[in-house]
Structure formats: structure tokens, C-alpha cells
């Protein structure tokens, strides 16, 4: 660990080597293993204890239906593990960035570019983010239920991993550290709403989903484009141009904005269906082959 950190903490060292990510590769697979253990031995028993029906062995005649329609317990465990992660990393990120000037003044992100060493806490925050999104990418391909927005999420994970790599290779750790805070707060509310929905808690899912929709619009459709992306596009001190990543960096964020618009359409579909049905529906939990009519029949 000391050798890993000295790569980042030495003020006279240039942080441009992709080999800095190599120590994080085994940590990615460790994170996947920990996720499987926590889901199997902690979250699933907890879900069953709280009243979610346990998974039943699939009969041969039901195999196709079982694979296309994941159980409520499976969906609960996936939402719960994401809730645990987002709650932890957002709290940790706020603790790390609270005393950083660029949290309160985004223009401070460009100050002393290239000469500001990465602090220990910021290094851990960035490393955890890389490990999570790398493991989430692998998990989506091989572990997670195939959801309605599979390809949107696939592109999202690739985009985020590319952005995080650019952040550390080109020393954009100040401006880059702000983005997860805007994203993770929405995901905490969304996953909590879904978990409570699976547990059939009265009214709580609807209230939380309403808060999620409001926070989504504020952070993803207002703050992100008009505060964050605007600052990157203006690049007032020429930092992104100096690092030769202006078009790549801003292009990745425009891809994210496009994905956010697609998700916004899905969110408003859920709002419409919630008003009609009277309870929140997890639109992401359906397989891609499910029609909207089938989705309405989900418990």
C-alpha cells in the first residue's frame, strides 16, 4: 500500500502512468467477491426475515420464465447492496471534500493545476470509485439481472470508467471528485425507495420516489449541465486544453447528459404508472423483453 500511495503523494512526481491502476485490478475482483458474500449470507436472509418470499427452485417448464422474470428477493438484494454502497461512498465523499475549496467554488478546481498533490483521503475516494464502477461493469455483464435499461447502464459504466481514468491520468482530481457527489445522492434515495417497495412498506416508497424525482431533476438536469458541465466547457483557465483532453472530457459528459435524458423519460413513465397503479413500480427490474403491460403487473 505504501508503494501505491507514494505514486500519488510525491509532489515532484508526474501522475501520468496507466500502471498506477494495476494494483486496483485485484481489488475489483475482491469487491465482486465481497458483494456476492454479503448478498448471499447477509442481505438474502435479512430479506426473507422481513417477509420477502425465498427463491423457489425453477421447474423445467418454468425455466424460461424464471430467467426472464427475476424474483423479488433477487431484486431486493441487488437494490440493497447498491444502497449500502452509495450511502457509504457519498458520506465518505462529503467527509473528504467538505474542507476542500473546490466543493464551494468550482473555479478553485483549476487553481495550481499540475502542481497540487493528491491527498491521502482524496486518493482513497478516487480509488474506491474506480473499484466500484469497474466491479459494477463486470457485475452487470455476469451477475446482475438483465434489466430494461441494460444498454443504457452498459454505456454509462464504460463512460464513467473512462472519465475516472482521465481524472487520475491527467490530474483532474479536483474537478473530477465533484461529479460522484451529484450522482450518488440520487441513487441513495432511489435504492431505498425500491427496497421499501419490495418490503411493501406503506406510502414510504411513493414519498421517497417523489423526493428522488425532485433530486434527479435538480442534480442531473440543472446542477450538472448548468454548473458543472458549463464550467468544463468554459475552461476559464485553459486547464482542460492544457491537458489535451478538452473535447474528450466534455464529450464524455455530454454522453452522460444524453443518458440522463433517457433515464428521465423512464422516471416520468414510473410517475405516470404510479399515479395509475397507486404504488411505485421498478421499471428497471423488468427484462428487456417485458412489455409495459407486463410491467404494470409486477408486485
TrEMBL record:
Subcellular location: Membrane
InterPro entries linked to this entry: Lag1/Lac1-like, TLC-dom
SMART domains referenced in this protein's UniProt entry, alphabetically: TLC
Keywords: Membrane, Transmembrane, Transmembrane helix
Pathway in which this enzyme or protein is active: Sphingolipid metabolism; Lipid metabolism; sphingolipid metabolism
GO cellular component labels: membrane
Name of one Pfam family that matches: TRAM_LAG1_CLN8
Gene Ontology terms: biological process: ceramide biosynthetic process
A GO molecular-function annotation: sphingosine N-acyltransferase activity
Domain (TLC): residue spans on this chain: 74-276
Predominant localisation class: membrane
Top-rank lineage group of the source organism: Eukaryota
Transmembrane intervals: 20-38, 122-143, 150-170, 207-233, 245-268
Lipid bilayer topology: Multi-pass membrane protein
PANTHER family: LD18904P, LONGEVITY ASSURANCE FACTOR 1 LAG1
Protein name (database record): Ceramide synthase 6-like
Gene behind this protein: LOC114334108
